Amino acid sequence: MPNFAQRMLDMEPTAKIIRGLFNAMSDADTISFGGGAPAKEGLPVDIVREICNDVLTTEKRGMEALQYGSVLGVLDLRQAVADVLLAPKGMQASVDELLIVNGGLETMNLLCQVYINPGDVILVESPTFVHCVEIFEMFQAKCIAVECDADGMQMEDLEEKIQQYHPKMVYVIPTFQNPTGKTLPTERRKKMAELGSQYDVIILEDDPYQELRYSGEVLPPIKCFDQTGHTVYANSFSKIFSPGSRLGYVYADKEIIIRLFDAKTATNSHTSTLAQVICAEFFRRGYYPEHLKKICAIHRERRDAMMACIEKYFPEGTKKVYPDGGLFTWVELPGKINTTELLKEANERKVHYIAGEGFFVEGNGKGQNCMRISFGNVTPEQIEIGMKRLGDLICSK
Amino acid sequence: MPNFAQRMLDMEPTAKIIRGLFNAMSDADTISFGGGAPAKEGLPVDIVREICNDVLTTEKRGMEALQYGSVLGVLDLRQAVADVLLAPKGMQASVDELLIVNGGLETMNLLCQVYINPGDVILVESPTFVHCVEIFEMFQAKCIAVECDADGMQMEDLEEKIQQYHPKMVYVIPTFQNPTGKTLPTERRKKMAELGSQYDVIILEDDPYQELRYSGEVLPPIKCFDQTGHTVYANSFSKIFSPGSRLGYVYADKEIIIRLFDAKTATNSHTSTLAQVICAEFFRRGYYPEHLKKICAIHRERRDAMMACIEKYFPEGTKKVYPDGGLFTWVELPGKINTTELLKEANERKVHYIAGEGFFVEGNGKGQNCMRISFGNVTPEQIEIGMKRLGDLICSK
What we know:
Two copies of one chain form a homodimer. By secondary structure, chain A is of the alpha/beta class. Helix content of chain A is 43%, strand content 13%. Chain A contains 13 helices and 15 strands. Chain A has a seven-stranded mixed beta sheet, with helices on both faces. A four-stranded antiparallel beta sheet of chain A has the order 11-12-15-14. The N and C termini of chain A lie far apart (48 Å). Chains A and B meet through helix 1, helix 2, helix 3, helix 5 and helix 6 of A and helix 1, helix 2, helix 3, helix 5 and helix 6 of B.
């Protein structure tokens, strides 16, 4: 058989991790703190049924929903993004500065198509979202970690690394970060936008958890401080509407949107019209504010249960992030416990998490005593049982 | 702003054509023989409504449809592809040799991710589908045309060009080809599979029109003759179910599927679960055979109307392809009419087609007197009016 492309070999180590993550969650008896899914109890099943019924009863709208659509996305949905999701955060986007994508991650892929040549540097957080590292590696970018503290990326180190490596892009999840749950403070957001402009670097702001806030004050996105168009704002409907509809959006300057349009046509033409029409109608009918309240309440209860269980069942000396929102917390175990090795035993005890090591691009053994724990798609009861299983295992070491 | 990646510059000439195609069809008064959409009257609006209603009433299934799903795709849909679509054509696929993609075109993108290094050669038909050329150029492949006759690719020229250029891939639409409507005969299909094996070249068989046959005998896909796994079979649900659901599939050897899995996770994780669940249910409930009959009848009538109108309104000496199925015919005008120049006047007369030149990768002015005419999403009445407008214009030259 013909050789695979070089990029497939370059991405293989991370692809192996990703394959492992996708293949992990199969056992029905296992309580999984692994994946990044939101609460299934919060999915708007009844609302979607009602909308489908109405949309598909009107002949014209039904045909539109099932026919080819616009590359940039269904106009009503782009308008809803501008009016309902961006304007209240201080971002004044026009519909031609928006592109609807097939799930939030697709923006990372398309922006790499637009900007990344093999060998280009992308600066990332330490730790960062491993799934996006896979994307960056498929484009043969070199990922370099910026030092992080309890508030996320350190601006001094970011500026030094920009000067040292001349990156094409900085990838950051500023709010309830994946995997740590940390949030970047306002002054750092402002600084990051300024650094992008000053050094001519794209700031890729990935903000899918922003709306899921359970405590603390709402912060403005980095994009709000962008004066030059260097910040690209990526978000997803997976957490606030439905992951299975595979919808996300990107807000960027028109010059970038034109190229994203090209990359999108050469990837899959456009995003599912049916899913977009349903989602647009969800916003048009005004369901969003109540729905958001509901899912925040569900996830807040789970966050609180999770934090209490770490306190209760994990050994003294355990460090943890208290996330003001999102789906994750990050735990650093005391002593010399290797979380990658521990996972096998944890799975035998029917509990699952994601080992910390894979989230670091440094590759120097960092994060070996860490774990990402998701509280999104587990009930408080499951959290109690699963965290006791996990805590007992850890304490037995 | 930072420079765009080299691939964006390499694809720019074709991207410009594609942008033009997408931006063309806006005027409601214009009768368009341009795009490749199937008849909107054939879209299964009522069936989809019924299915949504049922699926989203069952709590568990509703949640599944709106939650994250498998990278390879919803199991029921892959099983339907194997049982209902592939087995009757003589292809015995297992579910782990299948990947569900976000619309048929995505397979071309993912297979390029897996195989194409910059500078690799892809052999294509002359003319070929310009949208896929855009994809190949985004991967910085060099597209080289194989000579075609009334039956499609000429096998002697294909073999010579394989020997001369050592391509990584041959891209072919064997059935009711886009843009010409031609169909590759069985002996050439067999030969093509053999050439792939013999010279270690991937044969990318793109077969989205296969099911839309209105006359003539069903032919086996190239994949049926593949003994070595070199042929990759791509197909779409756009023509037989709904373009707006953005669903397609690829059938390939497991070794290739594993890499396509990696490329898919690094593109958009997976295809819309909701769309897949609806489509799977469409097959499970047995709607497909009757639906296919219905849409073939609609499109057959339009094909016949179109061929009669070319006869009636186009000048003597016009050459045309009689397509046994699909959505297109290909017309070669007599004399020195340039169809790219003519298009402006045609649009003023409120009729639209796609000029032939853009479908040739040779770039030597080939196809300047040709046009692709789609009869998919225009009624027989619109065909009559639109073709009279177009014929009158051509005859006035």
